[in-house]
Design a protein that fits this description.
four-stranded antiparallel sheet; 16% strand; 55% helix
Length: 176
């Protein structure tokens, strides 16, 4: 199962350009490492603290994540980056946060609505697609089978589409 990590760094004053250039180079080179599935840089909003930067990383699994963070490539980057920025804050994104990857997840009520938009049609699909196959199974086995299919479909198919389609609404500041 994919692992998502959110990293936040505060760049030292006067080191912004050097840090951002070296970060772009490092991110590009990091894809050589097996198991690195994604990386994104999130810059500050206009008027916000421009010295803070967010990095989102996706790995194939925990073993690949650990291999990356223990690699010589990462150790060298971290040593160099520490001369340009304060120590990084790492946060593993789990559950709904992993579907809504951003340095600041949307409010829970927005995550709930987006999740409902994925769960409802998926449950209808599963009911009509598998209901007749599962109707003779004991209820606990039927529910386990349906729940397993639901989680898999939501995780790898539906929720990535839902979050992409609803991205502007999910990330919109509710005060605007």
């Amino acid at each position: 199962m994919a692992i998502h990590v959110a990293i936040t760094r505060k760049i030292l004053p006067g080191k912004e350009e050097e840090f951002q250039e070296s970060l772009r180079n490092f991110l590009g080179q990091s894809f050589i490492q097996d198991g690195v599935h994604g990386a994104a840089i999130i810059r500050s909003f206009p008027g916000a603290d421009h010295n803070e930067i967010g990095i989102l990383r996706t790995f194939k699994d925990e073993n690949e994540r650990d291999a990356f963070y223990n690699s010589e490539q990462f150790t060298k980057w971290e040593a160099y980056a520490s001369t340009l920025a304060e120590p990084a804050v790492y946060r593993k994104l789990e559950g709904l946060e992993a579907w809504f990857r951003s340095p600041t997840p949307p409010p829970r009520w927005k995550m709930a609505i987006a999740t409902l938009c994925g769960v409802f049609p998926t449950s209808l699909f599963l009911y009509y697609a598998t209901g007749w196959l599962l109707k003779n199974l004991p209820v606990p086995l039927r529910l386990l089978t349906t729940a397993t299919l639901m989680v898999g479909i939501l995780t790898w198919v539906v929720m990535p589409m839902i979050t992409k389609m609803m991205k502007s609404w999910l990330t919109r500041n509710h005060r605007q």
